[in-house]
Amino acid sequence: MATVHDHVRTAEHHSQAGEPWHARPAAEVLEALESGPSGLPEAATAERRARWGENRLPEPPRAGALLRLARQFHNVLIYVLIASGIITLLMGHLVDSGVILGVVVINAAIGFVQEGKAESALDGLRRMLSPAATVLRDGRRRSIAAEALVPGDVVILEPGDRVPADLRLLLARGLEVQEAVLTGESVPVPKAATPVPADAVLAERGSMAFSGTLVTRGHARGVVVATGGATEIGRIGHLIASAPRMTTPLLRRLASFGRTLTVAILVLAGLTFAFGTLVRDFAADAMFLAAVGLAVAAIPEGLPAIMTIGLAVGVQRMARRRAIIRRLPAVETLGSVTVICSDKTGTLTRNEMMVEGIATASALYEVSGAGYAPDGTITRGGAAPAEAERAGLADLARAGALCCDAALREGADGWSVEGDPMEGAILALAARLGVDMAQAQAAMPRLDVIPFDAEHRFMATLHRRPDGLGQVLVKGAPERLLELCDRQRDGLAELPLDLAWWHARQAAMAGTGQRLLAVAVRRLPPDRRQLAMEDLEEGLTLLGLLGLSDPPREEAMAAVQRCQDAGIRVKMITGDHPATALAIAGRLGLATGPGALTGRDLDLLDEAALARRAGEVDVFARTSPEHKLRLVHALQRAGQIVAMTGDGVNDAPALKSADVGIAMGRKGTEAAKEAAEMVLADDDFASIAAAVEEGRTVYNNLRKAIVFILPTNGGEALTIIGAILAGLPLPITAVQILWINMVTTVTLALALAFEPAERGIMRQRPRRPDAPLLSRFLGWRVVFVSLIMVAAVFGVFFGYERAGADMAVVRTASVNTLVLLEAVYLLNCRHLVQPVLTREGLLGNPLALGAIATVLLLQLLFTYAPPMQLMFGTAPLAAADWLVILLAALPLLFLVEIEKRVLRGRTAAAPAKA
Ligand code: ATP
After folding, report:
1. pLDDT attached to residue 18
2. Distance of CA 645 to CAs 25, 515, 574, 662, Å?
3. Which of 378, 530, 554, 849 has the highest local Cβ count within 10 Å?
4. How would you label 447-458 residue by residue, b for 16+ Cβ within 10 Å and e otherwise?
5. HSE value, Cβ hemisphere, 13 Å, CA-based, for 127
6. Which SMART domains does the protein's record reference (predicted)?
């Protein structure tokens, strides 16, 4: 007798030998794969997984370590340094040349390690976003990691899903799949479960859904025939997209600025060399070293590394606050967002629903209970309803519940819903009314379904009644169902539809913020097995309305307030009823004064009118996904920077068009996630506000790092130029400058990349995206501090030189002065305008203090350790020297604080510009 093993082996053989699954009947395929219509038993999957491995495409080969290391040398500065190192070597300055080349190697090593760290940070984010698949196992619908799929698994496909493996379709309803990754064809192709000829080419295998392609419409089930590298996409050598490069528009601007700066500095260094040798008659080799010194002094070598780290830190901080960045530029854009358009359900509200009210043709009922638990009470004006009424309500709930796909489950921490929470609430209502759903499903088996979609806003199912007739059940938005119904049920009687009554009920229930759902039924002749749209166009009878509560999230209310304080307008875009939307919007603190615009209103507005109205109104109701796209365009035309949330496949265009597209991590489809710049791990609006705050902080910290680093270079360059012009020896030598730029500056600046958000950061207006990185004010700050630094260094230099100190001591004192200046200026830079002479300002960032301590320790080594003395030409200092140095450096701290104060006084006098 054949063992299970043998079967699995045969199946393996089939799936890897390119078996023509597309040509074989679905039932036969299931059998060949040892599976069934209700999927695999969970117990059988471990073995299959061991046999076929994870359902994952091979990782792209990493650039080899050597290549990555080599890449670090490819930059103008390094070329300059290498050339200088070689020339100094030829000139016989062994130690200098050794130090310069050593710096080159250290720089490359730092770059190498940094790049690796940044990449693994992004890799980590990608893992947080790994796709899921819906499968049937043991006959139960479950969501599992796509990696865990095995051949034989039965997968459920819905619009927006990325097909997780190669599937032979078992049944398909209106399924359309976009197969561009495989065939290059971007028009979606229809799919069906019927076999196609064995010799059909890939693009014509209509009975298959291939891994990596995108479901654009319809619903289907299919059995996995190949996973991982054995799939069609795996076989053409497609690889997992590698992590994006660590770059953003800002960094690119900075890099090109850096290149221009380098070239300009090289020219300047050349001129200085010419001036020194020709005009001042300095020796060529001494002048060459001076020119190299100038070049390395003026180029901010550490800046690129600090920028990359700053960005990586920001991305990780956002991830900790549940906002996962998919495209790095979003980190910057988030800081300048002026409008956030958010979905309502699940993002601004909790998406934990409960039926609170029921309206029938003759009465209103209140429902109480907790969550999805089956116990609760139903009353009518406070009194228990009569038995006959309860039976009518149970009929209504049963009809609604049979027209649901969700399921309720009792776990360790109470009842929870698997699937749509709104449907969960209906199931809970049915339970509260004593309906036995297992029995109801057995008595009325489902034959067909028209799934819910945001376009037509209802869902319909066809069942076989015990008497053999067909039973249609419809649940959906009341406006839609009121259009379709011509009668209503009242007790046992069927009466003509009383539109006025229902409209009044609808307005009253929606006005309290309840989400509304209508339930209607119709009978069909016994022979019907399939449901068509035409079946819903006449003969429907309305049973009643359900009012569901979906309270706003507490955190969302606070987050909306924070956004508004930050000059960001929050707008709600929902498929819900306008009255419901307005009631919830009011509780969230959105502007409800101008009322709500519905999708239908939007259709009537032309582009210019829409741009105007979209700015005024904060609540958009009964919208469909195309409206989101129009709104994004309208707001952008009005000069806004728009963040837009979305979850469905149809939201993808709006997410792509928005400046920051935000997809929901939990209820979002793969299509939406792939179109988005950012994914919210918890679907919560508050995470958007957190991401905006982090985005602003990253940008601020990058600015702080630049404002910190540039004056050091400015001070050094001015010192060297001044010395050459005055015909003096260099106060700081080239190798000493390298030490400062590559060691002390980077160590100190690193602390700024980790600066926490400033307290007032969410009370400032959004940054203009075209605003230059270095505003006029910051440009001024760089010049101001450069001048103070050069004055202090020259002061110490002159003092010691006049006193006739040894040149090594003079230079050691000068270098230590510059480093100490940097250390105090680091404290100034913690806040660009706010004072730092406070407890928080001086002690608030332990990393800054740690960095300063580290640098002081390094300076002691630099001054007293014999090998350092040999390399950098330093000499030991006496205790009194340190006092002098401290006195030379400390004034900077106070001068910058005075400058800030003057500046704050000025902006306070001109509040409009603040
Ligand atoms: P958003 O997340 O944009 O706020 P929404 O949840 O408010 O969206 P939709 O999901 O498009 O909007 O729902 C719109 C309306 O469709 C609901 O008010 C409800 O009447 C109806 N509806 C929602 N879900 C279902 C469903 N599963 N079956 C039938 N009708 C539904």
Report:
1. 67
2. 42, 20, 11, 5
3. 378
4. bbbbebbeeebb
5. 7
6. Cation_ATPase_N (SM00831)
Whether the pLDDT of residue 15 is over 70: the answer is no
Amino acid at 668: G
Nearest CA to ligand 1 atom 20: 477
- Give residue-wise pLDDT tens across range 633-642: 999 999 999 9
**378: which 2 tokens?**
């139903």
DSSP-derived pairing of the beta strands 140-145 and 208-209? unpaired
Q: Residue 13: CB partners within 8 Å, gap ≥ 6?
A: none
- Tally of CB atoms within 10 A around 24: 17
d(CA 200, CA 822): 71
Q: In the 8-state DSSP scheme, what is residue 40?
A: B
| Active-site residue, 343 included | yes
pLDDT of residue 7: 42
SS3 label, residue 324:
strand
What's the CA gap between 80 and 185, in Å, rounded?
49
- Cα separation, 634 vs 798, in Å, equals 64
Residue 646: pLDDT band by 50, 70, 90 thresholds?
Answer: very high
Dihedral (CA of 686, 687, 690, 691) sign: negative
pLDDT of residue 10: 42
**Using CA positions, which residue lies closest to atom 22 of ligand 1?**
476
- Contact of 823 with 755, CB cutoff 8 Å: no
How far does residue 576's CA lie from ligand 1's centre (Å)? 6
Q: Which helix (H) or strand (E) holds 137?
A: strand 132-137
Stretch 564-593: mean pLDDT, rounded?
A: 94
Residue corresponding to tokens 């001086």 = 842
Q: Which two tokens stand for residue 560?
A: 């909306």
| pLDDT at residue 788 tops 50 | yes
Query: Residues 869, 877: contact at Cβ < 8 Å?
Result: no
Catalytic choice (96, 153, 166, 343): 343
CA of 457 to the centre of ligand 1 (A): 6
pTM equals 0.85
Q: Tell me, what DSSP letter sits at residue 801?
A: H
User: Residues lining ligand 1, CB < 6 A?
Assistant: 343-345, 420, 422-423, 452, 454, 457-459, 475-477, 515-517, 574-576
> Could you say which DSSP state residue 838 is in?
S
Task: Report phi then psi at 429, rounded to 5.
Answer: -60, -45
11 pLDDT band, cuts 50/70/90, is very low
Q: Which two tokens stand for residue 587?
A: 């509780």
Ligand 1 atom nearest to CA at 518: 20
Helices (H) and strands (E) in the chain, counts: 33, 27
Nearest CA to ligand 1 atom 26: 452
DSSP symbol at 277: I
CA 644 to ligand 1 centroid distance, Å: 18
Q: What residue spans define the domains of the chain?
A: 4-58+123-242, 65-114, 250-319+696-913, 323-349+554-690, 354-549
Q: Both tokens of residue 874?
A: 């330093």
Beta strand 660-664 with 214-226 is unpaired
Position 431, amino acid: A
Fold classified for 323-349+554-690: Rossmann fold (3.40.50)
Rounded Cα–Cα distance for residues 617 and 595 (Å)? 7
Q: Which atom of ligand 1 lies closest to the CA of 647?
A: 2
Name the architecture of domain 4-58+123-242. Distorted Sandwich (2.70)
Question: For the purposes of burial, counting CB atoms within 10 Å of the CB of 201, is it exposed (0-12), middle (13-18) or buried (19 or more)?
Answer: exposed
Percent above pLDDT 90 for the chain: 59
* Separation CA 741–CA 720 (nearest Å): 15
What are the tokens at 483? 């259009």
For ligand 1, the distance from its centroid to the CA atom of residue 556, given in whole angstroms, is 20
Domain 354-549 sits in CATH at 3.40.1110.10
At residue 539's C-alpha, the angle toward residues 534 and 542, to 5°, is 115
Which superfamily, per CATH, for 250-319+696-913?
A: Calcium-transporting ATPase, transmembrane domain (1.20.1110.10)
